[in-house]
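Exercise 3.2. Students should predict the tertiary structure of the chain below and write it as structure tokens, then compare their answer with the key that follows.

Predict this chain's 3D structure.
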Amino acid sequence: MRAMTIKDIAQQAGVSVTTVSNVIHGATNHVSPATVEKINKIITQNNYVPNMSARALVNKNSRIVGVINREIGTPGARLVEDPFLSMMIRSIERELRARGYFMMMGTVATVQELNSLFNNWNMCGMIFLSMFDDDFFTQIVKSKIPSVCIDSYVEDKQVLNVGIEDRKGGYLATKHLIEKGHKNIAFVSPEIFDRGVIHERYMGYVQALEEAGLSVKKENLITIQTMEDGNKAGHMLASRRDLTSAFATADLLAAGILTGLSEEGLHVPEDFSLIGFDDIFVSSITVPPLTAVKQDMQQKGFTAVDVLIDTIEGKTVPHSTILPVSLVERQSVAKLN
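Answer key:
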């Protein structure tokens, strides 16, 4: 008995082969629910199993997109545990599925691991969650695989970029503190890499201080190793009686600082003011709720998928897409007299 083909399904359903293919791959945005149900019923009744490997060879498109987190510093990078990353990954997977693609997710720490990924997986595209100008990035360019870097400031026309207004975010946070009467403001962040996200947020911090005629003090730059060190940073800030406020470059970091300050007997915002960055759900449930720079993590994920798939499918897309940020005021900043 001859195996059923997509053409057979299309004839039975009274639709085009393209429509059947879209349903098989989950790209049903422009297919009516009734048609989807009819096609799926035919597929189930005939035990049809699509040969994805064969289709990949014919189309030269495996429809597998690698979502790669680059591990930097301390082993065990948080790919799922971090609510910021997990929210963005969920949006990436959802959009890939809607476009008829599949997601392979993983973490790599070395160029050797990256090359192994290239050699063992037939990926039609890649989305990288962090990237800097080094050998790692060079290998991505050499691979010739269509790629999108999220939150990267490395310039190369062969690699697409989706990011946010990081410098503006740092500026908005610092300016808000200044407008509330704060003059000695700490900048708390992980290590600052040249041409990286944290560097851009720091430059926004510097810009706001300089515009206000305030000096940028080296001792006000507080560097942590991991996000879990936020608690330690809170204790450190509590010991600095000259400081009245801090801008933390992530909400998880700010939440840790809140705990550390509390353990030292300081209250936010009565004794110390604090602003975070990202506006994840944690910001609204801390005590007090955090003022934060807001970015749209879901939109960032959707956009990264759309520009990548459009590139794979031969469409013209902008090399760089920058999404806006804004300041969400809550209750963690006090106005000084």
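Discussion points: Residues 53-59 have pLDDT under 50 and may be disordered. The two ends are 86 Å apart (CA to CA).
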